[in-house]
Amino acid sequence: MPADDPVRPSPARERLLSLSIVSHQHGSLVHELLRDIDRSGEDVEVLLTINVPEPLPFELSAFGFPIKVTVNAAARGFAANHNAAFRQAGGAYFCVLNPDIRFDADPFIALRRALDDETIGVAAPVVLSPGGSMEDSARKYPTLWSVAKKAFMRSPTLDYSIGTEPFSPDWVAGMFMLFRREVFARAGGFDERYFLYYEDVDLCRRLSGLGYRVQLVPAARVVHEARRHSHRNLRHLMWHVTSLLRYLYG
User: Is the pTM of this model over 0.85?
Assistant: First the structure.
């Protein structure tokens, strides 16, 4: 279920991209991402949430687009942060974007084109590791068996074979998700009962229930400078397990 408080964005501006980025002391990564966004030449606004206090290593005026900064008094979860950003968004498109994403070529052109099909609820790029290998950012719905299998495999395989044509996986990872604003609003945003992990799976499943398809668009490619906290941090591991159980059993 989505959060009890529905997402209520301001009126949309046609073709404007509202990009929601949440920083957990990732100021240097945010700086690099903002440079990539600036080079794209897109009509954007950035909704930057500082979830953990940090000095920003850049001036807001250094970029050719507006940056709205929200500093949280206490850390909030992934869902709550992005839903709050959406309520400030003025764009016709809403993008959830991790600070550790990088790109050279503009990924938004192909993703917006995919969303011209009104049956598509969310579009996402192919995600590459810094070494160039494909990450498993497009997956089948998880089960206890599939999660256990992945945890114990040294070299997990991709759930889908990724070629050059767009296709509809069960869900795409929340590191980069682009929505038409009315679709995100209709779904009620992310479910804020999740603090971290599986919010993306849950939202994709709810979009499917509303009759929308998820779309992975190979013409759009980004690099993920991955931070695998749940692999080495007990708190993140507990959030991961708790979110999985919530997703599977409600």
Answer: yes
Tell me the torsion sign for CA atoms 42, 45, 49, 55. positive
C-alpha closest to that of 135 among 32, 227, 237: 227
pLDDT for 1 equals 44
Strands (E), 79-152: 91-97, 101-102, 120-128, 138-139
Looking from the CA of 137 toward its CB, the CA atoms found within 13 Å total: 27
Q: How far is CA 194 from CA 94, 100, 201, 213, 248, in A?
A: 20, 21, 11, 22, 12
The closest alpha carbon to 241, from 154, 142, 173, belongs to 142
Domains of the chain (ranges, CATH numbers)? 13-249 (3.90.550.10)
Q: Fill in the DSSP letter of residue 207.
A: H
Kindly tell me the burial class for residue 55, based on how many C-beta atoms sit within 10 Å of its own C-beta (0-12, 13-18, 19 or more). Answer: exposed
Consecutive 10-residue averages of pLDDT for the chain (250 residues)? 55 84 95 97 97 93 97 95 97 97 97 98 97 94 74 73 96 97 97 89 97 98 76 67 75
